[in-house]
Amino acid sequence: MIDRTDDDRRPRIVELQTADGPVRAVQADGLVRARGIRYGRAARFAPAEPIRPWDGPVDATEKGPAPPQQPSRLELVMGSSTRGLRQDEDCLVVSVTAPASGTSMPVMVWFHGGAYLTGSGESDKYDPTQLALEGGVVVVNVSHRLGVLGYLTPRSVSDQEQNLGLTDQVLALHWVHRNISGYGGDPANVTVFGQSAGADSIWAMLLSEGTTGLFRRAILQSAPLGLRTGRDALRNAMLDVLDAHPELMGVQDSADQTAAVLATQATAVRAARRFGAAGALPFAPALGGTLLPPPEQVLDQIGRVAPGVDLLLTHTRNDALPFVLADPRISRLAARRIARSTVIEQVDRLVTRRVFAKPAASLAKTWRAAGGQAAHYQFDWATPDSGWGACHCIELPFLFPGDDTWADAPMLGTTSIGDDPTDLVGASLRAAWAAFATSGQVPGTGHGLRLLTR
Where do the Carboxylesterase type B domain residues begin and end (predicted)? Predict the structure, then answer.
């Protein structure tokens, strides 16, 4: 039960009673924040176990750790998403942001992007303060294992345990179902939402065993579903790299050993690049692995799940542009104005359609045919002076605005989020997401969003 008797805006410590045990959180400015709460623990390359209930209060006043990772390739558009966070393999944490006045509120569970290689739910860039306050929703940010540690179990360890990062995410959803009423949330009204790899992982959770009843709605932003074919050879090539370094896959608890694992991971990623477009997403939950059906059973699983889960899918107009320009062959053309207009823009349109837009439209169509509700949108807003257009990640500052948290994002150019006219775009987008989470109401067209199919 949240203490709501004091309207003082100054931060103060409150104690919440949850199913797992009492939690000390911070209450200020109409919100309660509980950070870095552990929902599980796992040995390296082993399934996570849920945290056992506790008796004494657990401190949840400080941010939790980020998963081990190297710098993100998307810093070139969004800036750093892990600045100020320590990294630790013991990274299975959630943070909760809840309005301090409300009960049985809708719940939104955020899964961050980063190609299953980078990012953290603890990042300042995913601060849900405005979304929670304006929308009257409880927001849960999830962190889970990434890269080799989450999605590529070495053959020498096990040929059975796969998709460990996905099992972490499902474990987090069970934590939400069990505990969220202690933060004022309604466990029967949960929406999962995520961007890029986070959206792709939601696609996997929709197909997973053991997720029925854990969420009612799902928002998939820029899911790279067009990269989900032809992955077996890629995966085997990366496993060959791990097989050549068995000494690096031992017991955790050593910072040097974690660094060595990341170095081997980088070698595996380089091996994946020769597999074309699929190599842009070297890690991902594997169909036929733990929790997931084999490819030939996906449509049957959608038929079982779709009637009970509403979908909202989005992509951005220039979703592929950062990845196109990161290609050395293309980047050399970027300085040539005529080449940019005739080659880069055409490649961006082609890849955006193939990787993001067309698969989202296909999933929406398949979902509706299976008896579910699905709507598909394009996000078109772009700053006039950045050169990045409406690129991958461009909607994130509007969902998660904060004081200077996006000041290092090149994709925004000289635009400041929260100033006119971006305040209208952000308020509209947050209201649309919160309304969908509350009742399933789908957005209209306007303030950056364009309805494609419904």
Answer: 35-326
Enumerate the H helices of 208-344 as residue ranges.
232-243, 255-272, 298-305, 321-326, 328-331, 337-339
Burial class, 340, CB count within 10 angstroms (exposed 0-12 / middle 13-18 / buried 19+): middle
Whether the pTM exceeds 0.85: the reply is: yes
Do you find a cis peptide bond into 106, omega within 30 degrees of 0? no
User: Band of the pLDDT at 1, cuts 50, 70, 90?
Assistant: very low
In the block, tokens 């997720």 appear at 211
Find the angle CA(98)-CA(206)-CA(296) to the nearest 5 degrees.
Answer: 170
Residue 196 φ then ψ, to 5°: 60, -120
Neighbouring C-alpha atoms within 13 Å toward the C-beta of 311 = 34
Classified as helix, coil or strand, 260 is helix
Residues 6+ positions from 428 with CB-CB distance below 8 Å: 446, 447, 448, 449
**CATH number listed for the domain at residues 12-453:** 3.40.50.1820
| 171-227 pLDDT, tens digit each | 999 999 999 999 999 999 999 999 999 999 999 999 999 999 999 999 999 999 999
Nearest-angstrom CA–CA distance, 426 and 411: 16
Distance CA 182, CA 196 (A): 30
**Structural domain boundaries in the chain:** 12-453
Q: Is residue 448 within 8 Å of 380, Cβ to Cβ?
A: yes
